[in-house]
Amino acid sequence: MGKLDGRVVVITGAARGQGEQEARLFAAEGAKVLLGDVLDEQGAAVAKEIGEDRARYVRMDVGREEDWAGAVAAAKESFGHIDGLVNNAGILRFNELTATPLEEFQQVVQVNQVGTFLGIRAVAPELAAAGGGTIVNTSSCTGLTGMAYVGTYAATKAAVLGLTRVAALELAAQGVRVNAMCPGAVDTPMANPGLLEPGGVTEEAGEAMAALYRRVVPLGRVGRPEEVARLALFLSCEDSSYITGQPFVIDGGWMAGVNIL
């Protein structure tokens, strides 16, 4: 038996990275998953690999209300109901705070913050109608502590924590638990956007980044997306049945303190 047998879970940003690993793990644990993303070819391929009986892909811009309505309708049409949501979709931009254009700031807010809000608002009534369920929001260590050159991202991830706490309080009586994951450095395309484009991050820069992680992360390495997926699974199954409204740091010990060695 799987930990999510009989569950139906909507996962955003599921075409690659953490979202892809969450979709694959949840399906392996018995869930039926609706994968949402704007990367149509990749998202459809992941759903096909998982299997038509367990997965469906829909194009989904999480910052658009109509896309959330479509995703909810698609999940119910395909699988009958919804028991869980993983708000995984997010974008990251590197910039000095005082040099950040308003358009860039608003773009990140629309995906990371507004997208999470719209997801909670769209899916929570479905979870209540199903007798209860779970929402897992994806925040970040930067939502708990500062980090230079990612001010917009950090602001949105701090907002996600606020939304998580309020949603947990308001939805508890309906049997809906809401928690947040706060990953540190994780080896995904979003964390290394230059790897996706010609002329982006060089091999030398990649090695320098790996060396940095070895110095500052007590466990000596960057995290793997499947490790974050396992935390999402814990927060989506009965193993965490008495937990709600909490941030869970998964960072290899990065935030534990200063390591002078």
Task: Please describe the structure with a list of short key phrases separated by commas or semicolons.
single chain; 261 residues; 7-stranded parallel β-sheet; 7 helices; globular
> What value does the Rg take, in angstroms?
18 Å
Poorly predicted residue ranges: 193-201
The fraction of residues in strands falls at 5-15%
What is the number of strand segments? 7
Largest sheet: 7 strands, parallel
* Terminal-residue CA separation: 45 Å
What structural class results from the helix and strand content?
Answer: alpha/beta
Neighbour order of strands in the largest sheet: 3-2-1-4-5-6-7
Mind explaining what this structure looks like?
- The structure is a single chain.
- With 261 residues, the chain is an alpha/beta fold.
- Helix content is 43%, strand content 15%.
- It is built from 7 helices and 7 strands.
- A 7-stranded parallel sheet has the order 3-2-1-4-5-6-7, with helices on both faces.
- β4, α4 and β5 form a beta-alpha-beta unit.
- α1 crosses α7.
- It is globular.
